[in-house]
Amino acid sequence: MNHSFADLPEEAAARRELAACYRLFDQLGWTEAIFNHITLRVPSPPGSAHYLINPFGLHYCEVSASNLVKIDIEGNDITGTGRQVNRAGFVIHGAIHQARPDAHCVMHIHTTAGCAVSCKESGLRHDNFYSAMLYGDVGYHEYEGVTTNVDERPRLVQSLGNRNHLILRNHGLLTVGGSVAQCFQRLWTLQRACEIQLAADAGAGPNREIPVSVLEKVPASRLKMNDSTKADGVSQMMFDAMLRRAGISRDAL
């Protein structure tokens, strides 16, 4: 589901949703000390793109609705909070928010499974239940060092293209979505695909391939179960259930 700018939640609600997601990432172990980012676009003046990001120096368990920083695509602190933002956060996320109007949310992680698959020459194989769902929707971006150079932005955007999942070679995973919930479901699926691939590779014997003729049908058959509105609703139901399981309340953040 591609959300329009009119679909953007008002900023206070966006802050609660994003803060809850940071806390959920912490519960899932998808953290990397004080690094990595989840960003969410918020209403902004015409011709500009403002989004929320975690302040640099805080662990995900410390992120709250009130301490999220609103920045533009160049990393400028819009409301003058004085909080520092990690440069890689606006180099990567700002580029995607600017290039993809449908990418209201961008998530990037360095999980063990994701980083391990990103280091393999073959990348993600579409031979398990979850990776089959992603067939035709995974891009790859070559490693150019720590992502702090704005010159890398055009190549990053080109690597993603119109896809919703990106494997950063020798680096980690990234997904985009029209909402926090949609982006989360995509990242959860990509992460599970990587975990299962690593587990399968550790077992004896060859892995069983899925015929391309079947793979070509899987993404469409998955989406066919719901129309676009209901598909997004499923993402939200999943996200809400995960928050409840983790004991995370948006209103408490």
From TrEMBL:
Source superkingdom: Bacteria
One annotated Gene Ontology cellular component of this protein: cytoskeleton
Domain Class II aldolase/adducin N-terminal: 16-198
InterPro entries per record: Aldolase-II_Adducin_sf, Aldolase_II/adducin_N, Aldolase_II/adducin_N_sf
A GO MF term: actin filament binding
SUPFAM superfamilies: AraD/HMP-PK domain-like
Family membership: Belongs to the aldolase class II family.
PANTHER family membership: ADDUCIN, PROTEIN HU-LI TAI SHAO
Protein name, as recorded: Class II aldolase/adducin family protein
Lineage: Bacteria, Pseudomonadati, Pseudomonadota, Betaproteobacteria, Burkholderiales
